[in-house]
């Protein structure tokens, strides 16, 4: 395999696997929103329903877009912002172990923003 092929395979894995894992956090929030249960944290004072809606975008909609590689760099932005909020606001006073997972996701989504989706994506077709 050419080195270039390995780089694009690595970019695809970096994009797809963490985004698929993120869906496990976003799906319950999506179901909550669909069922009309908008009880959710409101860290910015915009209301529970808008906060939940933004979390669904960052944890479900954008990861779906990243999985297929559509508008990947743009989709990584709300996901990264959501993880920033989770790490530094929702879990701001928690010990590092509680912040570790959102910080890992944040790092991955920032890398995706910087490097793009690679050639194995809808963006590159």
From TrEMBL:
Write one Pfam family the protein is assigned to: DoxX
Where does this protein reside within or beyond the cell? Cell membrane
Q: State the UniProt keywords alphabetically.
A: Cell membrane, Membrane, Transmembrane, Transmembrane helix
InterPro entries of this UniProt entry?
DoxX, DoxX-like_oxidoreductase
Q: How does it sit in the membrane?
A: Multi-pass membrane protein
Question: Any transmembrane segments, and where?
Answer: 46-67, 74-91, 103-122
Q: Which family does it belong to?
A: Belongs to the DoxX family.
- Kindly provide the name given to this protein in its UniProt entry: DoxX family protein
Q: Which source organism? A: Flagellimonas abyssi
